[in-house]
Amino acid sequence: MSGEHSATDGPAGVTGRQRHGWVTVGIVALVMVLNVFQQPGLVTFDTKLDLQFNPAGFIDRSLSLWNADWAIGGLQNQASGFLFPMGPAFLLGDALGLPMWLWERLWSAAVMLLAYGGARRLASYWPGVTRWGAVVAGLTYMLAPRVLTTVGTLSGEALPAAVLPWTVLPLVLYLRGRLHWAVALLWSGASVSWMGGQNATLVLACLVFPGLLLALGEGRTWRRRVRDVTVWSVLVLLASLWWLVPLFLLGGYGPPFLDFIESATNTASVTGWLSSLRGTSHWVAFLPDGGGAGLSGGHALARSPVLLLTTVAVAGLGLLGLAQAGLWQRRVLMVSLLAGMFVLTVGTGGWAGSVLSGAWIDALDTWLAPLRNVHKFDPLVRLPLSLGVGGFVSVGLPRLLASSPRPVATTRPVRAALAGVVAALVAAAALPAISGQLRTEGGAEDISTSWRQAAAFLSSEPGPVSAIVLPGAGVAAQYWGRTIDEPIQVLDAPPWISRAQVTVAPAGTLRYLDSIERLVEAGRPQAGLVDAIRRLGVTHVVVRNDLDDEETDAPPAEAVYASLGGDPDVVSVARFGQTAAGEPEVEVLSLGGGARDPRAGIAEWADLQVVQGGPEVVSDLVADGLLGADQPTVLAEGEDGETVDILTDSNRRVERTFGRVHSAVSGVMTAGDDFRFHRPVHDYVGGSVPAATTTAEYDGAEQLRASSSGGYADVFGPVRPEEHPYAAFDDSAFTAWASAPFSPPEDQWIEAQFDRPVDPGQVELQFDVQGGAQVSVVRLTTDDGEVTVPVPADGRTEAVNLPGTRTTRVRMTVVEAATGRRQVRLAGFVMSDHRITRSLRLPGKATPQTTVHLSSEAPERACRTTSQGVACSQGWQRETSETPGFDRTFDVVATGEWRLAGRVVATHGRVTEQLLTPLSPAQVTVVSTTTFAGDPAVGAAQAFDGLTDTGWYASPLDPAPGLQLSWQRKRVITGIRAVLRQGQEGYLPEFLRVDPMTPDGATQLVATTGPRAGVMTPIRTQRLNITALVDPSHSDGVGISELEIDGLEDLRHTPDPTAATGVPCGFGPTIEVGGATFETGVTGTIGDVVTGAPLDLQVCGDDDVVLHRGAQRLKVTNAEGFAVSSLWLTPSAPTVAVRSAPPTSEVTSWSSSERVVEVDAEEEAVLVLPQSYNRGWRATVDGRTLDSVVLDGWKQGWRVPAGTDGVVEMSFEPQDAFRLSLVLGLSVAALLALLTLMTLALSRRRPERFRGSEGRPPAPARRTAATVTLRVVGLLVGGLALAVMSVPLLAGAAAGHVTRRAALPGLSVAVGSALLFAVLIAIADPAPVMAPPPASDAIVALVVGLVAGRMLSGQPEGVGR
Fold first, then answer.
1. Quick one: 280 and 207 in the same domain?
2. Which CATH number does the domain housing residue 589 bear?
3. Number of C-beta neighbours around residue 1357 at 10 A
4. CA nearest 642: which of 601, 600, 612, 603?
């Protein structure tokens, strides 16, 4: 391209060119330094972890649409878009052998300099911008907040914007007559390939500005404009085919994963006028520390009051620059700015926002979902403003100085100083980057050795191997480094899977993976967990102990060990690394499985079970023995007349926060409950997931509502269903409705609504003031009025008479509470004459041949038992509304008989601890003052059982923790030693106070450490009271692994974990169903009680459950210390099928897109592949296409006809089109690049042949009735468009039109004062500046309208000087 500058530069001397060159060198050097000194020596996440650690493997994987590296398969999201230029760029760095941390810093610097160089060069050819104005324009564009937010963490998002000026530059040369139109369009179109295809929305956003320039740029007839836009669009399309076709294939064959990520409410309703104008519209940066991606620099830019001032000042200067009459094509620039602001702000409602906000949000959540991240349209605003800043420095600033009455204002030093001030304001945005926040925090020198060794070990294991990484995590943040993506992803390991926050998978797959995580998170042995994992085709479990628990929502590794504990098939086969606590960083567990090929299986079609429920219930059915380990299922739709084999209460109506993996769903909702989020999808639904859901029904209330709740999905942080409003009315003393965290307790309310007027009687309230806010005054409201009620310090109110007698609602509102933002916790909302209970209603209907399976919201204990010992945390304990029992309602179509069975888990308290005491009165019985969370795993008996790997752990709140030992006959005690094994919970006290509990026995202090440890004066007694002297410096409780008591060695009781235990018939949970009450007993082992493993529920007697046609109610009342976790009714006379020889299958060939399996099936069968169902897969046998079927709600299957003995060939049909599009698309893009290089070289040699003709401005239109009418219509339409965007914008435009002849100084004062006022309002507001009040947005919209009104209403040339 020509090196010519704009006409306003004037003659450039050698000295000026040299200064300009030195400035460029300085900027390049500063950008390099800024990048290189960000966490030097550490590789940080950038867009894709594979780019930093395995670019070759990533490029190879990107050549396939189907990702076979994921154990259950799936489509890759825009992976082929990395094939150019990002993939090759990082591959080059890897090939050169440079340290990757340095190479990625050079890459980020290159992207920044690409943005600077392009914007500077574009500005230098833009009439109205001088050479030095172009430098400032380049700096403004390079240091824009969005570039600084993404360039070090998501450079794939920064790259298209960096290429944009280079795409526009040839078009400017053409429009100015410096380049032939065909060559200009070729160069511009070819440059689009350099934007890459890793983010299609950003590329689309970046194409709007050059499209507007071609369509609206003056100096051409409309016919030429249509030609230019058409040819350019075709060239852009050709340059993008290599990633555009794969994108359409992803949309056609991929799941609707956009439904399962952030909603438009998150992305588009928070980007108001102030944030959008200054460039801080990236919603992820609004999250604490920049969210999971670690956009900490963007977070600092968004919330800093100082940077708010500087970035608004820069944007204001850009607006003033755009107002300069001498700036070329400034109306196009303003149209681009308004278009960008429309996309960015129209989702913001309120009086300062758009009337279309609701419709826009709905559109972004549905048919415009790919555009949901509206912040990607920031370049439409940023490039015009950058050129405007350049124009202000070039023309506006000299004009302002010229209007000054003081001659000194026009001198070169003053102009240079003021230009320096502008440059300093621009550079201020880089302050977070200068402080080290340009990149994701938590870089690593390399992927940890432990992970590399684990991946290598898995690769060396014989047979087909696939692994699941547990626990899953929203983002992979390890204590050795924050990789965001999974470390195993880049290590060429065998196929693997892990539940992560963003996964391109169908709803059924995600729900099944969540069921695995749910079983793991419970932290107790799960009978069916191994079989559930095997159904994924998984052979190994990779347990991660290296997650940073402060950065992730994942359960600890102890939960994985506890949930898999006791299964004989689970074997530890390798351990790698060591944590500070002595645990392996990464451990590999084998699941056994014998010679079975996990990749494919076959089963008889007759064995297939029709299940009413969601995919998540399959693992429960396997655990409870209602399904075989490999028995396939299909999910029923819940339609009338549909026959099901198993009816379940799964697929519950809940609301999910998609930004979390764990603790992500609300309490069960009624059919009429409104969702908290405004979005079309509220859970993983659609596809094979049935639409019919299990819903809550209240007896005694139509609806329970609250102002906020920790059990609602819109809460910040983990969602706690046990804090749902129903928790205030349930039978559990341990649950409570809790308001949302971080919200003031005042004005929080909870309300019961009735379907008819009722007399609730007196009301008593019980607040949990220990765990929640200290509420002092509340207000109770009914239809007839309200009454104010004081709340005593203990949180329990006296019985209160409500206004009136009958009411359709009762509301409690907090009026006063202690200062702070603690949650309101209401544990009891008791109405003396009215009770509210809940039942969950199942969809579908049961026939006499249907099995009914029910699952409760079982509690979770505070302690988890693994092979390494017991770990406890108060945060692990979860009480639920169904801990006391649960209630279900289902429909039966005909009278039948069923057998009742179930499983029970031991909870906490004295009852479960007593199961560990000796049966013989001659042995020592131990009781304690307290036990941590009442958990039997750390009960008193473990302190004197002869085992050091067990122990007693007292409550941290116990002021005098102690043990009382008793035995039948007196003994002489000569010494007492206390031991605390390393790694056990608690601390060992320095002294024990020993009381023999005899009339003449004196209390002694016995040391636990040192030379006199255990030494005491002998005593004769049959009881001992041993009390620990608490050390106030310890925050945890006292712990004792073992007491060694001289004189009682032979009376010690060592419980046998395999010994039978439980409660006898009649003392277990009670079940009411079908008009009868069934007493039960509980059987299991001591080990089951300690670990929390399921115990068997035994129904007393042999009576069957008789259910008649109609709605049936089943109610479970739990016994103390136990909770029913699952319950099922099986037909008393099950059908027995006649079996033939089982079908067989053998894999003979396997690749990412083609598979061959030999099958032999006498009867009709189903071929099962443990991969996500996708309609793109096709299976044939002997040329016949097999019918596909979705198994387990997520799995790929095909029906195999009876008598089939042959080869089933499977292929992923879109793969051929995918590869063809890559080959042809990249070839066309390369051809366009080659033509560009050839014409560029020729233009250097013979520039006269490539010049175009200068577009002539259109002749002034004659004033006729038609032109006047057209102008009036245009003004009306334009005014309506502005009003739709924002009423303040329209008001500003009207003011701009009226004052369009005002001089520049007046405009500058008006714009500057208004923007400063908007900033001050935002700073003064209590909310963070990233969420400014509507007044600030209104003022900004007014200012933008003021400038737009001057420009778009035909301001005469020269006005505003």
1. yes
2. 3.40.50
3. 8
4. 612
1182: number of Cβ within 10 Å: 11
Residue listed under structure tokens 């399976």? 853
Type of residue numbered 409: A
State the DSSP string of 146-213: HHHHHTBT-HHHHHHHHHHHHHHHHHHHHHTTSS-HHHHHHHHHHHGGGG-SS-HHHHHHHHHHHHHH
Which residues are 811's β-sheet partners? 751, 781
Shared domain for 1181 and 1093, answered yes or no, is no
| Chain segment 1199-1236, per-residue pLDDT in tens | 999 999 999 999 999 999 999 999 999 999 999 999 99
- 973 to each of 708, 1004, 1044, how far by Cα in Å? 59, 12, 11
Check whether residue 904 and residue 990 sit in a common domain: no
Give yes or no: residues 471 and 335 share one domain. no
- Would you say 958 and 1040 are in contact if contact means Cβ atoms under 8 Å apart? no
Burial class (CB in 10 A: 0-12, 13-18, 19+), 1023: middle
Contacts of residues 7-16 at CB distance under 8 Å and 24 or more positions apart, as own/partner, are 7/127, 8/127, 8/128, 8/129, 8/130, 8/326, 8/394, 8/395, 9/124, 9/130, 9/131, 10/130, 12/131, 16/131
Task: Report how many domains make up the chain.
Answer: 6
CATH assignment at residue 828: 2.60.120.260
Q: Are residues 816 and 834 in the same domain?
A: yes
Residue 1079 within any structural domain of the chain = yes
What's residue 1253's pLDDT?
65
Q: Which two tokens stand for residue 931?
A: 């036990």
Strand partners, 66: 75
Domain membership flag for residue 670: no
CATH number for the domain harbouring residue 1078: 2.60.120
Q: What is the mean pLDDT of residues 295-302?
A: 94
* 159 lies in the same domain as 59: yes
Domain boundary, last residue among 1098, 1129, 1160: 1129
CA distance 1251 to 1005: 101
In a domain, 666, yes or no: no
Closest CA to 201 of 150, 145, 146, 161: 161
| pLDDT at residue 40 in the model | 96
CA distances from 704 to 674, 701, 878, 1351 (A): 11, 7, 22, 55
Tokens representing residue 79 in the block: 């992976």
* pLDDT at 1060 exceeding the cut of 60: yes
Place of tokens 């764990």: 662
Q: What is the pLDDT of residues 991-1009, one digit of tens each?
A: 999 999 998 889 999 999 9
**1075, 1109, 1129 - which closes a domain:** 1129
Strands 467-470 vs 540-544: parallel, antiparallel or unpaired: parallel
Are the beta carbons of 599 and 1170 closer than 8 angstroms?
yes
pLDDT tens-digit map of 547-565: 998 888 899 999 999 999 8
567 and 481 within one domain: yes
First vs last Cα of the chain: how many Å apart? 33
Q: Where are the beta strands (DSSP E) in 577-707?
A: 586-590, 601-604, 609-612, 633-635, 646-648, 695-699, 703-706
1072, β-bridge pairs: 1077, 1115
Please give the model's pTM, rounded to 2 decimal places. Answer: 0.93
| 3-state SS assignment for residue 469 | strand
How confident is the model at residue 994, as a pLDDT?
A: 96
- The closest alpha carbon to 83, from 75, 91, 93, 94, belongs to 91
Model confidence pLDDT, tens digit, residues 891-943: 999 999 999 999 999 998 889 988 999 988 889 999 999 999 999 999 999 99
Q: What is the mean pLDDT of the chain?
A: 92
784 with 874, same domain: the answer is no
Give the whole-angstrom CA distance, residue 341 versus residue 357.
13
* Domain around 1156: 599-645+1135-1212
Domain assignment of residue 1270, yes or no = yes
pLDDT at 6: 41
